[in-house]
Every structure is written in C-alpha cells, then in structure tokens.
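Anyone have tokens for GDSL esterase/lipase? Sequence:
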Amino acid sequence: MGYSSLFLICFLLVVVLSVSNGQPLVPALFIFGDSVVDAGNNNHLYTIVKANFPPYGRDFKNHNPTGRFCNGKLASDFTAENLGFTSYPPAYLNLKAKGKSLLNGANFASAASGYYESTAKLYHAIPLSQQVLNYKECQNILVDVAGQSNTSSIISGAIYLVSAGNSDFIQNYYINPLLYKVYTADQFSDILLQSYSNFIKNLYALGARKIGVTTLPPMGCLPAAITLFGSHSNECVDRLNNDAINFNKKLNTTSQSLQKTLPNLKLVLLDIYQPLHDLVTKPSENGFFEARKACCGTGLLETSILCNHQSIGTCANASDYVFWDGFHPSEAANKVLADDLLIAGLSLFS
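Reply: yep, here.
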C-alpha cells in the first residue's frame, strides 16, 4: 500500500469519526462558480440557462428538479457529504429567510458565469464579482445570527470551492467572433487568469483562507463540444483539450504565485481534467456504458431548456452514462469526481 493510499484511509477514518460525532470537518462550505456547481441560483433570474424542470433532478431527493444541472447530486454535493455535512450549502438567491440556514455555508454559483465578466452578462447570469458581493452580504447576516467572534471562526475555518472557466470558453470564446477573431485562446486564457487572480484576492480580503479551485475539464470531450466543434468526428476535440491543458498549467502557476504573496492562504488546485478524461476514454473500466452521448435527449447537444421532459430518447438509467446532458456529468460521474476532489484537497485540512 502506498503512502497516499494509507493517508487517504487515515483521513477517511477521521471523517467517519467526525461525522459520527455530528461534527463536520470544517465549519462551513462556500461555493462559487458556474453551472457545474450551481444549486439553483439561476432559478429566479431572467435567463434561459436554467435547470429547474424535469428531467433535471429526477434522481435527486424526492425526484425534484432544484436547478442543478444534473439528474441528481453535483460533485459539490458529494463534497459536502464527504466533509461531514448532513445538508448541502443552499442556493443563496433561493433562500427566503437568510438566517441560521447560512451557518454551514452557502452556494453563490450561477450557471453560465465565469472569470470573464461578459460571459455572465451575455446570459444574464451572476458574474463572480457579484457572487463575491453576495458573499459579503452573507457575512453581515452571519454576524447578526452568530455574533462577530463566531462568524470570524466560520469564515477563517471554512472551505471555499471555486469552479469556473468552462463557460468562458464553450459558451463565449469559441462561438463569439468578437473574441476568437481578436484573441488567441492563449491570450484569452491570460485575460481569464487576471480575473481569477483578482477574484481570489477579493475572497482573501473577506477572510477566505482555504480555497479549492477546480481546473478546466477536458472541454473537447463534452458531448455538445464534440457535436459543435468535432467536424463530424466522434472523438474528443484535441484543440479544445489542448486549450484546457494550457489554461490549467497557467492556473497552477498563478495559484502558486498567489499562495506565496498572500499570507496563510491555502490555495489548492483540484484536478477535474484527468479524472473526467479517464471516464470518457475508459468508461467500461470505470463502470460506465456510454461516454460519447449524454443521457438526456439525443445526448449529442441538449442542455438547459433543450433538455426537458419532452426530449426524445432520454435514457432510463443515467448511472450508465458519464454525462447527463451535453455539458454536465451524471450523478454517477460526479461521485467519482468528488472522491478525486477529496484526495486532491487533502492539504486543505492538514
């Protein structure tokens, strides 16, 4: 048994003991980003990028659509469970009473948001800059509920999960001639990373000290991306995957620089690229039947309003599929990804 496996077993034992005592590993979990982690903030926005209707959520608690872009749980939901929470960080905009429900964290993510401010504006989503302001408002509410001292402990001890960048490329750069004719993908990456750096600094200024940031996934392997950009091939689009790899390298460099310049910051990169690439290229080895087509509809393109209860061809068993819709993993795939995230984020707890 390797050191990492032994360390993981010991860590999971700590988790089990903590959970059995009713104590999560951290006081709270705060989530920022895009549709990969949106738990329903877009439900009440004037946007077409929503998932609060069937068949979304058909395998979730009570079989209800919540606004999650999945048939069931998101990777961030499994992460909350792995940390010992008995409920998931609620979608901040969906809360009618923003009081004690915020004590264990909140979800500020908005589908079609990203590091690039204009991506969110294009789809009437919540930009990361506004997500930070919502978090600041949340802090003030926590002070009223728990007091300043307790709030400070919650803020400094909490885990902050960030997932963004995918929408900037797939839903903006690649389809927007105002961007792709002006900037190379490499230049666009630099613009995104400047925004990312500012975002982390703003979170840090508000007290965040334990931040986990997901990398870009293998964008060229998303069913909709293959359909749109694959030139009638059924293979992953190398150009898009290479752009993701390049971005992730820069994300790592930028994150290391931020960690060096911001005292006491733990900023950990959580690799989504390799685990999801493995699921797509070796589905049967990972317990999946289908990785090219998604479960919803034809499985080649549908997402959001195109994935609805009338979508013809929607699969009966989503757990056989790596993808639920054209852009988003199934609950079964999210479980695999969340377990990998836990291993990657171990240093946040040490």
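The longest strand covers residues 29-33.
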